[in-house]
Specification:
Its EC number is 2.7.2.4. With 416 residues, this protein is α/β, with parallel strands linked by helices. 38% of the residues lie in helices and 23% in strands. It binds adenosine-5'-diphosphate, aspartic acid (ASP) and magnesium ion.
Length: 416
C-alpha cells in the first residue's frame, strides 16, 4: 500500500488533472490512496468568502460564484459529455455550501471557516475521482471526514489517533485505488474540522501511519526538497537523501515544502517519504528515510516572512524566570500564537512569533498588564541549518538585523 499526495499547484487546471494520470502511468496505481488538496488557490479564495460573509456583506455570493466558475471551466475542459454526472455533483456541492451559509446562525469565525473551507477539497477530489473513473482508472471516493476524527479546536485541530486508526483500518479498500481529501477531518459531532493551512501533507502522513503504508510520495512543483526556497534564493541544490531528523527540523523552521506535522507519524513507523516533481515523476527527488546521513553537508536556508518580534521586560526590574515564562507560554498557547525563536536575559525576554489566527492584539492587552512590551511587526526570521561563515556573511549583507542566535547546527536571525 502506498500513499500519494497531490497539492493545489499540481491540480490547478485541467492539464494538471490530466498530469495526475501521467504520473500514475509511470508509478502504477494498485493499492494506492491518493490525497488531494484544493485546486490552485481555492483555499485562499474560500477564506475570503468567510471573511466577507462574516462582515455581513453580500459580496460573498459573488466570491462563491467566481470559485464555482473556476471549477466549472476545469470540468468543461475535462469532460466532453456535458451530461456526465460530475456536472450535477459539483453544482450540488456549491449549492450545499450556499445553503449552509444561508441557514447558518453561528457567529464563531473558526467554526464557520472549517464548514466552508473544506469545500475546496470536496470539490477537487470529486472532479479528480470522476475524471479518473471516466478514463478507466477505477477508484473509490472516500470522505476523509469519515476516517480522520479530531477534537473541536476548529482551524487548528488535533487528531484523535485511536479512533482514526480504527476507522482507516476498517473501512478502506486495501487493494484498489482510493481518492480522498487532504486537510479535513471531523469532530465528535461530525462537524468538519481542518488540520491547519497546508495540512494535506499531514493527511497523507496520517493515512500512511494507519495503513502501515510502504511509502508516501508528495508531488510538488519543485524537484524535491532543496537547500532553499527557489522563490526566495537564486541558486539552490537538491537534498537527495535526508534523515527524518533533518526533514522535521527543516519543516519546523519553515521550509514550506513539507508540512511540519507530516514527518512524526512516518518516522514512528519508519515509512519512507519521497518528495518529487509532478512534472518529472521519474526524477531522483528527495527521499526521507531511516539510515540516511544525518547532515546534508550543505547550508540550508529557510525564511519565514510576516513574523512579529516581541520583547518583554519586567516592570519592576525583577528577573524573568520560570514562573513568568510559564505564564507567558500559556498565554501564547491560549491565543494560538506559534513561537519560532526565543532569547532571554535576566530582565528581558524576546521571542519571534507567528500570529496565524490574528489574536496578537488580544494577547498584547494581557501582556501589557504585566510586562513592559515592545514589538516589531512584519519582520523576517532567517534560519541556516549547517551554516558556514560564508553563508552567514552573504545572508547578512544589507540586512537590518534585530536579533541573532547561533547554536551548534543552526544560525537564526530576525531582520526588518
Ligand atoms: P503544494 O502544491 O503541495 O501545496 P507547496 O506550494 O505548499 O506545494 O510547496 C511547494 C513550494 O514550497 C515550492 O514551490 C517552493 O517554493 C516552496 N519551498 C519552500 N522551501 C523549499 C525547499 N527547501 N525546497 C523546495 N521547495 C521549497
Ligand atoms: N488546501 C489547504 C491549503 O491550501 C491544504 C493544503 O493545500 O495542504 O492550506
Ligand atoms: Mg500547499
Amino acid at each position: 500500500m502506498r500513499v500519494f499526495k497531490f497539492g493545489g499547484a499540481s491540480v490547478k487546471d485541467a492539464d494538471g488533472v490530466r498530469n495526475v494520470i501521467k504520473v500514475l502511468d509511470k508509478t502504477g496505481f494498485s493499492d494506492l490512496v491518493i490525497v488531494v488538496s484544493a485546486m490552485g488557490k481555492t483555499t485562499n479564495a474560500l477564506e475570503n468568502v468567510v471573511e466577507v460573509y462574516l462582515k455581513k456583506d453580500n459580496g460573498f455570493k459573488k466570491e462563491i460564484q467566481n470559485i464555482e466558475e473556476y471549477h466549472n471551466q476545469i470540468v468543461e475542459d475535462l469532460f466532453e459529455n456535458k451530461q456526465h454526472p460530475v456536472f450535477e455533483k459539483i453544482k450540488s456541492l456549491f449549492l450545499d455550501m450556499k445553503t449552509l451559509l444561508g441557514r447558518n446562525k453561528s457567529t464563531q469565525h473558526d467554526f464557520i471557516y472549517d464548514q466552508i473551507v473544506c469545500y475546496g477539497e470536496l470539490v477537487s477530489t470529486t472532479i479528480i475521482s470522476e475524471y479518473l473513473n471516466h478514463r478507466g482508472y477505477t477508484n473509490d471516493w472516500l470522505d476523509a471526514r469519515d476516517f480522520i476524527k479530531t477534537d473541536s479546536v476548529y482551524r487548528d485541530t488535533e487528531v484523535n489517533w485511536s479512533t482514526t486508526q480504527q476507522n482507516i483500518a476498517q473501512k478502506t479498500n486495501k487493494k484498489g485505488l482510493s481518492i480522498t481529501q487532504g486537510f479535513i477531518g471531523s469532530d465528535n459531532n461530525n462537524f468538519t474540522t481542518t488540520l491547519g493551512r497546508e495540512g494535506s501533507d499531514y493527511t497523507a502522513g496520517i493515512f500512511a501511519y494507519c495503513l502501515n503504508a510502504d511509502s508516501v510520495s508528495i508531488w510538488k512543483d519543485v524537484p524535491g526538497v532543496l537547500n532553499a526556497d527557489p522563490r526566495v534564493f537564486n541558486t539552490t541544490q537538491l537534498l537527495s537523501h535526508i534523515s527524518y531528523e533533518e526533514a522535521i527540523e527543516l519543516a519546523f523552521y519553515g521550509a514550506s515544502v513539507i508540512h511540519p506535522k507530516t514527518i512524526q507519524p512516518l518516522q514512528r513507523k519508519e515509512i519512507p517519504l519521497y518528495v518529487k516533481s509532478f512534472l518529472n515523476p521519474e526524477g531522483l527527488g528527495t527521499s526521507v528515510k531511516k539510515g540516511q546521513p544525518l547532515d546534508p553537508h550543505l547550508p540550508c536556508y529557510i525564511v519565514k516572512k510576516n513574523q512579529i518580534l516581541l520583547s518583554l521586560s519586567s516592570l519592576d526590574f525583577s528577573f524573568i524566570v520560570e514562573d513568568n515564562m510559564s505564564q507567558i507560554f500559556s498565554l501564547f498557547h491560549e491565543y494560538q500564537i506559534k513561537v519560532g525563536l526565543i532569547q532571554n536575559s535576566a530582565i528581558s525576554f524576546s521571542v519571534c512569533l507567528e500570529d496565524k489566527f490574528i489574536h496578537f492584539d488580544e494577547l498584547l492587552v494581557k501582556l501589557k498588564a504585566k510586562f513592559r512590551v515592545t514589538y516589531n511587526t512584519n519582520v523576517s526570521l532567517f534560519t541556516i541549518r549547517h551554516f558556514t561563515d560564508e553563508a552567514i556573511m552573504s545572508l547578512e549583507k544589507d540586512k537590518d538585523i534585530l536579533l541573532k542566535q547561533i547554536t551548534r547546527e543552526t544560525y537564526q536571525m530576525v531582520s526588518r
